[in-house]
Design a protein that fits this description.
- The chain has 124 residues and is of the alpha+beta class.
- The protein has a single domain, classed as BirA Bifunctional Protein, domain 2 (2-Layer Sandwich).
- It is built from three helices and five strands.
- It has helices at 13-20, 42-55, 79-94, and strands at residues 3-9, 32-35, 65-71, 98-105, 112-119.
- It has a five-stranded antiparallel β-sheet, with helices on both faces.
- α1 (13-20) packs antiparallel against α2 (42-55).
- 33% of the residues are buried.
- Bound molecules: manganese (II) ion.
- Manganese (II) ion binds at residues 25, 105, 112, 114.
- Manganese (II) ion (MN) binds at residues 25, 105, 112, 114.
Length: 124
């Protein structure tokens, strides 16, 4: 059974995304996808979203993004299936209202999905 944890990213989104998309962990980035932003510019886009929210009067927060980890048992899923499950889970949980990057890590016996996400807010 998959186990899910949620943490807060408070330091930099840039280094968090660089870490999770590491080619050595993600089968040369084959197992990386995104929603509402592009993988390459996600950190900048997350920062921009935060700035825009502030400008529109949303309360400022020290939390830059959430960091969701979904771990599978050893042998439970293939890397491709893990990534597919990660996408479905994200889309059910976030309902298209958050931008996210999804990376499936295959550098350990237990495959796990790592997903930084951030609420998108429409301009008022
Ligand atoms: Mn990992």
């Amino acid at each position: 059974m998959a186990v899910t944890k949620i943490k807060a990213i408070r330091s930099t989104v840039d280094s968090a995304i660089a870490y999770i998309t590491n080619p050595a962990k993600t089968d040369e980035k084959l197992l990386v996808s995104s929603f509402g932003c592009s993988v390459e510019t996600a950190a900048k886009e997350f920062d921009w979203t935060k700035e825009m929210a502030k400008q529109h009067g949303m309360p400022d927060t020290k939390i830059l993004a959430r960091h969701v980890i979904q771990s599978f048992d050893v042998g439970e899923v293939s890397p491709e299936l893990a990534h597919e499950i990660g996408k479905k889970f994200a889309d059910e949980m976030l309902g298209g209202k958050y931008e996210y990057v999804l990376a499936t890590h295959v550098d350990k016996d237990h495959i796990h999905n790592v997903r930084p996400d951030r609420a998108m807010r429409k301009a008022v």
